[in-house]
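Subject: sequence -> structure tokens, single chain

Hey, anyone have a minute? Need the predicted structure for the following. Not urgent.
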Amino acid sequence: MDRSTTAAATTSLSDATPENAEAGGTSVLDGMPRQRGDAVTETSAPRPPASRARTRALARARTSALRPWRLLPTPTGTPFTFGYAAVLAVVSVTADHAAPSLVHALQQGSSTDVAHLARHPVLVLLASALWIAGGVASMYAAGFVLVLTALERRIGGLRAAGVFLLGHVVATLATEVPVGLSVLAGHLPGSSLHRLDYGISFGVAASVGALAGLLTPWLRWPLLIGFAGVLAGDLIAFRDPMTDWGHLLSLAVGVSTWPLIRRRHRAGADGRGGRDTADPAVRAAQAPGTLAAQDLTVAPRSPAGTGRGARGFLR
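Reply:
Had a minute. Here:
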């Protein structure tokens, strides 16, 4: 009886040799963790192929941020900027080839002077933002394309349009209402009520201020300081002080929108709800239930001069 029990125990121990454990994928001794059989099993387990696809998708997403053509508007990626830029281009080309008297009459009819604001405020506020004095080659035209494209890619078309319109309207009213009050007080002549005032510069300045809040600090502060320095230099030159004050005010309006647009930008980045927040392949690889998503739960973390100023009072 004792001999048979001893033989069975001996047979059980002999079966649990390292060679048998490695061949069968079991531990050498029960209750002893991290033995040679466990190590071989863990290291020889193949990595799910979906994780490699996810890695490639993430690499493509990082590379997409370096594509220079993303600086330009597209019909699907930035519809507001693309459509608005197309309208501005058509208006500018038409103004270059139309009769000067006709162009002057149209600009005067869409001017946001005090007289027009008192009669048709909404119409002239919208119409005045369709002109770029200096044409499509002006500085503010290039700034419009680059700044509005970057802003729309981060917060969406509706919010980018809201920032642009807010700066345009607030700065226009802030510069024109004092003119009207000064005329009533007798400090300015009555002709100041009909000064030409149109352009996109107020909206562009507000968009620059808003975009700066979404950039990293080493880009944000040089952009703000440099742009504000240019505007302050124009104000010191005293060529068109009312418009130059409007530019600084519209820049401040854009900066004041930081809390709102930052919240929207974070929500779009976290929930993938905004446009162009991630590559489609990345979203597909990270979808719940996929092998890549499961791999994320077990893989170890790795260590870590527009029109104003062209004729004295133009924007």
